[in-house]
Amino acid sequence: MEITRIRSGHGNPAAIEALIPELLAFDTVINRASGLGEDFDPIPEELRHSLTSRSEYRATLTWIGRNHGDIVARGTADLRLTSNTDTAELWCAVRPDLRRRGLGAALLEQMESDLAADGRTALSTYCEIPESVRTADLRGAHLAAETGAGTLPVALPEVSFLSARGYGLAQIERCSVAPTATAAELDLEGSDEYVIETWLGPVPENRLDHVALLRRRMSTDVPGAEKYGGEESWDAERVRSSDAEKIAKGETMATALALLGDEPAGYTQVGFSAEQPEIGWQYGTLVIIDHRGHRLGARLKIANHRSLAEYSAVERVYTWNAVENSWMLAINDQAGFATWAWVGMWTKNLH
Ligand SMILES: CC(C)(COP(=O)(O)OP(=O)(O)OC[C@H]1O[C@@H](n2cnc3c(N)ncnc32)[C@H](O)[C@@H]1OP(=O)(O)O)[C@@H](O)C(=O)NCCC(=O)NCCS
Fold first, then answer.
1. Ligand 1: centre distance to CA 106 (Å)
2. Where do the N-acetyltransferase domain residues begin and end (predicted)?
3. What pLDDT, in 10s, does the model give residues 97-147?
4. What is the pTM of this model?
5. For the CA atoms of 290, 291, 294, 299, what is the dihedral angle to 10 degrees?
6. Pocket around ligand 1 at a 6 A CB cut-off
7. Which of 65, 83, 220, 245 is the most buried (most CB within 10 A)?
């Protein structure tokens, strides 16, 4: 297998355009084999963005493995450039008919050595297991997450692969899905002073600092955050830049922000793309510690789903939560979510 590497924004533009359909076809094959469903098929603009975007805050590395000219394996690593510069979030996949021949191990080894050479030694990755696949093997041996909450069957290829490559199963997340229409029937009211604002699109100028503060807290104040790096540096300029990137890749963000007077108390965001307008993807949700205990998490999610149902074409929203985060799971149950898949979060330190 011949492995090449592209850093986002640094490839030859014509070569990248030619590569996109090939990678889309590869990623679609991988997703169809995973059993996660067509909602998880790759989005062309997201893929283009991961190859072409030039941001001062983040970069994506893409590795492509070919045999006789055909793509047989591919990997990605997301890098933060202004904070957590020793971390990388990676992922790799091998064409289903060519698995168990050492291609995955060869690709991952190359990725790790390139990342280590770049000072990226705190690695994290994930594997997504559909609910039906996990429940098909309840009697076999299971690997427990380091948090103590949740297990995955050892016999699954991804679990064996990552264990064999020295990754530790740090945490398990539940992926769940909710129809946005359900929110209209749910109780949004609270008998307190909090006000919830919702909007679609970029963060308004007068809320940039509020969102920057919440994004900063989001990187430290959720269960397990310390495993994937320290506090992220966020200011109004980075929020603007993040919004500009979303627009560039055809993604709209729906935000609900809770305020007590002018003080930010919590937020939740869902993104949807122009190419897949009926599907929403949950981004961060956070209620600041001082403001917990007012059902703000559920109220934010319900408000955001109502706004999506009213002002967008989004019909369903997928979300991910750490299984030990029982508060957020309860909030999601209240907001109408049902389990779709289980996600193993893995870490490895190259030191
Ligand atoms: C995980 C994945 C990349 C493995 O690719 P692969 O080319 O089949 O893996 P390799 O042949 O290099 O296997 C390396 C080791 O992993 C383990 N392994 C991989 N697949 C396994 C399986 N089906 N059963 C048991 N062990 C397995 C073995 O220890 C193997 O070494 P061995 O063959 O010497 O026993 C592939 O299954 C895949 O693309 N899955 C979907 C994508 C994904 O979930 N990626 C998550 C990881 S980032």
1. 11
2. 18-189
3. 999 999 999 999 999 999 999 999 999 999 999 999 988 878 899 999 998
4. 0.87
5. -150
6. 91-94, 99-105, 125, 127, 157-158, 160-162, 164
7. 65
